[in-house]
Specification:
Rossmann fold, alpha/beta, 2 domains, 6 helices, five-stranded parallel sheet
Length: about 200
Protein backbone atom coordinates (compact mmCIF):
# COMPACT_ATOMS: atom_id res chain seq x y z
CA UNK A 1 0.00 0.00 0.00
CA UNK A 2 2.79 2.43 0.94
CA UNK A 3 4.60 1.82 -2.37
CA UNK A 4 1.44 2.42 -4.42
CA UNK A 5 0.65 5.57 -2.44
CA UNK A 6 4.16 6.93 -3.01
CA UNK A 7 3.94 6.00 -6.68
CA UNK A 8 0.69 7.86 -7.12
CA UNK A 9 1.87 10.99 -5.34
CA UNK A 10 4.56 11.66 -7.96
CA UNK A 11 2.19 12.52 -10.85
CA UNK A 12 0.09 14.59 -8.50
CA UNK A 13 3.26 16.48 -7.63
CA UNK A 14 3.51 17.23 -11.37
CA UNK A 15 0.06 18.73 -11.17
CA UNK A 16 0.97 20.81 -8.12
CA UNK A 17 4.21 21.94 -9.76
CA UNK A 18 2.29 22.93 -12.88
CA UNK A 19 -0.04 25.16 -10.89
CA UNK A 20 2.76 26.52 -8.68
CA UNK A 21 4.96 27.39 -11.68
CA UNK A 22 2.31 29.59 -13.23
CA UNK A 23 2.04 33.17 -12.06
CA UNK A 24 -0.98 33.71 -9.86
CA UNK A 25 -2.85 36.70 -11.25
CA UNK A 26 -4.87 38.51 -8.62
CA UNK A 27 -8.36 37.08 -8.48
CA UNK A 28 -7.58 34.11 -10.73
CA UNK A 29 -9.51 30.97 -9.79
CA UNK A 30 -7.67 27.86 -10.96
CA UNK A 31 -9.87 25.01 -12.13
CA UNK A 32 -8.94 21.35 -11.82
CA UNK A 33 -11.11 18.82 -13.62
CA UNK A 34 -11.07 15.28 -12.19
CA UNK A 35 -12.33 12.42 -14.38
CA UNK A 36 -12.83 9.11 -12.59
CA UNK A 37 -14.03 5.69 -13.65
CA UNK A 38 -14.91 4.57 -10.13
CA UNK A 39 -17.07 6.32 -7.54
CA UNK A 40 -15.32 7.92 -4.57
CA UNK A 41 -11.96 8.59 -6.21
CA UNK A 42 -12.23 12.20 -5.03
CA UNK A 43 -12.29 10.99 -1.41
CA UNK A 44 -9.14 8.86 -1.56
CA UNK A 45 -6.11 9.49 0.62
CA UNK A 46 -4.28 10.42 -2.55
CA UNK A 47 -6.73 13.17 -3.47
CA UNK A 48 -6.75 14.46 0.09
CA UNK A 49 -2.93 14.61 0.01
CA UNK A 50 -3.08 16.58 -3.24
CA UNK A 51 -5.55 19.09 -1.80
CA UNK A 52 -3.45 19.44 1.37
CA UNK A 53 -0.32 20.18 -0.68
CA UNK A 54 -2.19 22.69 -2.80
CA UNK A 55 -3.35 24.42 0.41
CA UNK A 56 0.28 24.58 1.56
CA UNK A 57 1.10 26.33 -1.74
CA UNK A 58 -1.66 28.88 -1.22
CA UNK A 59 -4.46 27.28 -3.23
CA UNK A 60 -7.75 26.89 -1.42
CA UNK A 61 -11.02 25.45 -2.71
CA UNK A 62 -13.65 28.13 -2.91
CA UNK A 63 -11.05 30.90 -2.73
CA UNK A 64 -8.63 30.63 -5.66
CA UNK A 65 -9.20 27.04 -6.81
CA UNK A 66 -12.07 24.75 -7.70
CA UNK A 67 -12.15 21.01 -8.36
CA UNK A 68 -14.82 19.72 -10.71
CA UNK A 69 -15.27 15.99 -10.21
CA UNK A 70 -16.99 13.63 -12.61
CA UNK A 71 -17.33 9.89 -12.04
CA UNK A 72 -18.55 7.26 -14.50
CA UNK A 73 -19.67 5.24 -11.44
CA UNK A 74 -17.89 2.17 -12.79
CA UNK A 75 -19.45 2.43 -16.27
CA UNK A 76 -16.65 2.89 -18.84
CA UNK A 77 -19.06 3.95 -21.60
CA UNK A 78 -19.86 7.07 -19.54
CA UNK A 79 -16.25 8.32 -19.56
CA UNK A 80 -16.24 9.97 -23.04
CA UNK A 81 -19.30 12.18 -22.43
CA UNK A 82 -18.05 13.07 -18.94
CA UNK A 83 -14.63 13.97 -20.37
CA UNK A 84 -16.26 16.23 -22.97
CA UNK A 85 -18.35 17.84 -20.22
CA UNK A 86 -15.22 18.59 -18.18
CA UNK A 87 -13.38 19.95 -21.21
CA UNK A 88 -16.37 22.20 -21.96
CA UNK A 89 -15.97 23.63 -18.41
CA UNK A 90 -12.44 24.73 -19.48
CA UNK A 91 -10.30 23.56 -16.53
CA UNK A 92 -6.68 24.67 -16.29
CA UNK A 93 -5.61 21.05 -15.87
CA UNK A 94 -7.39 17.72 -16.10
CA UNK A 95 -6.57 14.96 -13.65
CA UNK A 96 -7.55 11.61 -15.16
CA UNK A 97 -8.26 9.06 -12.44
CA UNK A 98 -6.81 5.67 -11.72
CA UNK A 99 -6.28 3.18 -14.53
CA UNK A 100 -6.14 3.57 -18.30
CA UNK A 101 -9.73 4.27 -19.36
CA UNK A 102 -10.15 7.73 -17.80
CA UNK A 103 -6.89 9.06 -19.27
CA UNK A 104 -7.86 7.68 -22.70
CA UNK A 105 -11.24 9.40 -22.54
CA UNK A 106 -9.60 12.66 -21.41
CA UNK A 107 -7.06 12.52 -24.24
CA UNK A 108 -9.80 11.89 -26.80
CA UNK A 109 -11.67 14.96 -25.51
CA UNK A 110 -8.86 17.54 -25.73
CA UNK A 111 -5.46 18.18 -27.26
CA UNK A 112 -4.91 21.51 -25.51
CA UNK A 113 -5.75 21.14 -21.80
CA UNK A 114 -2.88 19.54 -19.83
CA UNK A 115 -3.82 16.03 -18.63
CA UNK A 116 -2.09 14.30 -15.71
CA UNK A 117 -2.72 10.62 -14.96
CA UNK A 118 -1.65 9.15 -11.61
CA UNK A 119 -0.70 5.66 -12.85
CA UNK A 120 -1.11 3.73 -16.10
CA UNK A 121 0.52 0.36 -16.68
CA UNK A 122 1.53 0.97 -20.31
CA UNK A 123 0.82 4.54 -21.43
CA UNK A 124 2.63 4.00 -24.75
CA UNK A 125 0.66 0.84 -25.57
CA UNK A 126 -2.55 2.56 -24.45
CA UNK A 127 -1.89 5.36 -26.94
CA UNK A 128 -1.61 8.05 -24.26
CA UNK A 129 1.97 9.12 -24.93
CA UNK A 130 4.46 8.73 -27.78
CA UNK A 131 7.16 7.33 -25.48
CA UNK A 132 8.04 7.27 -21.80
CA UNK A 133 11.06 9.51 -22.32
CA UNK A 134 9.33 12.01 -24.62
CA UNK A 135 5.59 11.81 -24.01
CA UNK A 136 4.74 14.70 -26.35
CA UNK A 137 1.29 16.22 -26.60
CA UNK A 138 -0.70 17.36 -23.58
CA UNK A 139 -0.66 14.12 -21.55
CA UNK A 140 1.77 13.09 -18.83
CA UNK A 141 1.88 10.90 -15.75
CA UNK A 142 3.43 7.87 -14.17
CA UNK A 143 3.89 4.37 -15.56
CA UNK A 144 4.31 1.19 -13.57
CA UNK A 145 5.92 -0.54 -16.53
CA UNK A 146 9.42 -0.45 -17.85
CA UNK A 147 10.45 -2.58 -20.79
CA UNK A 148 13.86 -3.19 -19.24
CA UNK A 149 12.37 -4.55 -16.03
CA UNK A 150 11.10 -7.75 -17.68
CA UNK A 151 14.58 -8.91 -18.59
CA UNK A 152 16.01 -7.86 -15.23
CA UNK A 153 13.27 -9.76 -13.38
CA UNK A 154 14.02 -12.91 -15.36
CA UNK A 155 17.74 -12.55 -14.71
CA UNK A 156 17.03 -12.21 -11.00
CA UNK A 157 14.84 -15.34 -11.08
CA UNK A 158 17.58 -17.24 -12.90
CA UNK A 159 20.11 -16.19 -10.26
CA UNK A 160 17.76 -17.15 -7.42
CA UNK A 161 16.56 -20.39 -9.04
CA UNK A 162 19.35 -21.73 -11.28
CA UNK A 163 18.25 -24.47 -13.62
CA UNK A 164 14.66 -23.23 -13.83
CA UNK A 165 13.23 -23.83 -17.28
CA UNK A 166 9.57 -22.85 -16.85
CA UNK A 167 8.38 -19.54 -15.50
CA UNK A 168 4.70 -18.78 -15.00
CA UNK A 169 3.43 -15.25 -15.38
CA UNK A 170 -0.06 -14.90 -13.87
CA UNK A 171 -2.04 -12.35 -15.85
CA UNK A 172 -5.34 -11.76 -17.56
CA UNK A 173 -5.92 -11.95 -21.30
CA UNK A 174 -5.89 -8.17 -21.82
CA UNK A 175 -2.35 -7.92 -20.49
CA UNK A 176 -0.69 -10.82 -22.32
CA UNK A 177 0.35 -8.54 -25.20
CA UNK A 178 1.79 -5.99 -22.77
CA UNK A 179 3.64 -8.64 -20.75
CA UNK A 180 4.98 -10.42 -23.80
CA UNK A 181 6.17 -7.27 -25.50
CA UNK A 182 7.89 -6.00 -22.36
CA UNK A 183 9.52 -9.31 -21.48
CA UNK A 184 10.04 -11.40 -24.60
CA UNK A 185 11.59 -8.64 -26.68
CA UNK A 186 14.32 -8.20 -24.09
CA UNK A 187 14.85 -11.79 -22.95
CA UNK A 188 16.84 -13.62 -25.55
CA UNK A 189 17.91 -17.01 -24.27
CA UNK A 190 14.85 -17.50 -22.06
CA UNK A 191 11.81 -19.56 -22.90
CA UNK A 192 8.75 -17.84 -21.46
CA UNK A 193 5.13 -18.46 -22.28
CA UNK A 194 1.98 -16.63 -21.23
CA UNK A 195 -1.51 -17.87 -20.65
CA UNK A 196 -4.65 -16.76 -18.88
CA UNK A 197 -7.72 -18.61 -17.62
Amino acid sequence: MWRSTVGLIVPLALLVASLAAQAQPAGKVWRIGYLALLPGEDQTTLMQALLERLRELGYSEGKNMTVEYRSAEGRPEQLPPLARELVHARPDVLLAGLGTLAPQAAKAATTTIPIVFPLVGDPVGAGLVASLGQPGGNVTGLSSQSVDLGRQRLQLLQALLPGTHVIGVPTVAQFIAICSSSILVKTRGYAVSFSSP
